[in-house]
Design a protein that fits this description.
139 residues, alpha/beta, RbsD-like fold, 6 strands
Length: 139
């Protein structure tokens, strides 16, 4: 345990967040996501919801202010405008930190493959997937 560090942030996740550079991306995904297939670095958070993981990650990760959408969710197949409950929660949690965009399902998979790391949660809700772009901390 460390003072001031969210208790859900494991040593592996802390290392990934610290090692990421500006513009690198990290995906927080649900239990149905093909994490093992897609990840260069897979960090597991079984038993943790994607929203709880997002809240924990955002205690340390600055979102990129130089891109239009520093957070991107997976679009619902057949209804790109739909907002599933998990996505509504992500948008609320991200709040004023940045705009949330959306990506077609298979494009999301490809983008996740390029992520610095994928955090696979125990999230059971469909479309509980979000990709975050790391920003900078001004001096």
């Amino acid at each position: 345990m460390l003072i001031g560090i969210h208790p859900l942030l494991s040593p592996d996740l802390l290392h990934a967040l610290a090692a990421m550079g500006h513009g690198d991306e990290i995906a927080i995904v649900d239990a149905n996501f093909p994490g093992t297939t897609c990840a260069r670095r897979l960090i597991r958070m079984e038993g943790v919801s994607a929203t709880a993981a997002l809240e924990a990650v955002l205690t340390l990760l600055p979102l990129d202010s130089y891109v239009p959408h520093p957070a991107n969710v997976m679009q619902v197949v057949g209804d790109a405008e739909a907002v599933p409950p998990a996505v509504a929660d992500f948008t609320r949690i991200i709040g004023t930190r940045g705009k949330v965009g959306s990506v077609e399902r298979f494009a999301f998979y490809e983008r996740a493959k390029a992520c610095f790391a994928i955090v696979q949660t125990g999230e059971g809700r469909l479309y509980g997937n979000v990709i975050l772009t790391k920003g900078v901390i001004p001096a």
